[in-house]
Amino acid sequence: MKPRFQITLFFLFSIIHFSFSQNRPLQIIMIGAHPDDCDIKGGGTAALFAEMGHQVKLISVTNGDAGHMEQGGGVLAKRRTEEAKEAGRRLGITYEVLDHHDGELLATLPIRLEIIRKIREWNADVVISHRSNDYHPDHRYTAILVQDAAYMVGVPNIAPDTPPLSKNPVFLYFQDNFQKPYPFRADIAIDISLVFDKKIHAMDAHESQFYEWLPWIGKYESEVPQNREERIEWLKSKRFGQITEATKSSLEKWYGPQKAAQVKQVELFEICEYGSQPTETEIRRLFPMLKP
């Protein structure tokens, strides 16, 4: 094969690969510590991606086997796994629960390798997880596990049984309200108003949590309605607050002032310093719902 022909062929394949990568469905993976974490923090965004034809996977690193006041162990783990799968069906996405004990998670090498493999297998463009400053140790260690995977997903000799990613994904954090050592920064704001009911419908699948465990912890068991329709409305009122000034500023950046003023429900994400650092153009490609 002549050198000039080889160069032409190389550029032709490069153009084809670039075109394919720009037009294929996006691969989004959200990694939470417990079954329901991703639903709470990113369920609306997951629903939007799915409705647009993109591929979304939610992962719970623990099986949730400690999150109840009466049930526990394998019985509860099985129940929560089924709840997560039902939530996934309601969102139109894939939901996977890993088999690690709730409340006992540590950022160990075997689990890090497991997370690396999951991100690679999904060929993720975007990875979203917790920040590492959080009240719950499972949240903190999930954050560390994902951060530790951020560089390693592209290293061939790490977890060599799973092919490395050719491009580092964009890593993002879910929103939280913790202030130290630094507060959450709303880099990306997603209007989920059109899929808000779908998000609530997915959260409703986690009956053991929203109608049993969390009310028991918070001492508001008596508030939980028995009627299903009333429960949905109660869940809406219980889980969401006001849109802050910082949120409005981020919404205006991505949607423009006129559309931002009409947003009723929103999900926020912060760009992690690890992984690819996207430009505004790249963010709009990775989040195609961001349209003024």
Parts with pLDDT < 50 across at least 5 consecutive residues: 5-20
Order of helices and strands: HEHEHEHEHEEHHHHHEH
Question: Into which percent range does the helicity of residues fall?
Answer: 40-55%
Approximate shape: globular
Tally the helices: what do you get?
11
Number of strands: 7
How much of the polypeptide forms β-strand, as a percent range?
5-15%
The CATH architecture designation is: 3-Layer(aba) Sandwich
What is the makeup of the main sheet? 7 strands, mixed
Q: What does the radius of gyration come to?
A: 20 Å
CATH class: Alpha Beta
Distance between the termini: 50 Å
What's the domain count?
Answer: 1
Largest sheet strand order: 3-2-1-4-5-7-6
**For the residues shown, what is the average pLDDT?**
92
Q: Can you tell me the CATH superfamily?
A: LmbE-like
CATH fold-level label:
Rossmann fold
